[in-house]
Design goal:
Blueprint: H1 5-13, H2 19-45, H3 47-52, H4 55-83, H5 93-122, H6 147-161
Helix pairs in contact: 2-4, 5-6
Protein name: Phosphatidylethanolamine N-methyltransferase
Organism: Vireo altiloquus
GO molecular function, one term: phosphatidylethanolamine N-methyltransferase activity
Length: 162
Amino acid sequence: QVDVAAMVRLFGYVDVTDTGFIVAVLSIAFNPLFWNVVARWEHKTRALSQVFGSPHAACYCLGAVILVLNCVRSHCFTEAMKSQPKLEGWDYHWTYYSGLAISAVGTLFVISSFLALGFTGTFLGDYFGILMEEKVTSFPFSVLDNPMYWGSTAIYLGWSLM
């Protein structure tokens, strides 16, 4: 038997019926679904590469779309956070600065991952046939598996605390 008391308490603090919350959850779920489906479709058909005239142009276009979708997701997340109830016991300076520190570490991982991988390495270039010379093992990949995902998660966690 599962104890759901913690989930019941959590849902007491989150208004899951709020439109902003629903839109944020949908945008968070949609983004990786979209780019993975499009990348796999490209890998099978090479249709985007044909339309754009080259794999690089197609990858850059998909990367731009992903960046725009990420901006939309961040906006939806921010608006949802504004409309949700705040935990009164967490409304302290230390919570804000902890969130700021967690976001800073997340940003370090995201930016350093991007710099290590480059644009096409970050934005699914391998699905377009754009392969790197060798596996990236420098920082932050020497510290974490999937530093881009962990970094993004840390940014949103920190943002939530702030």
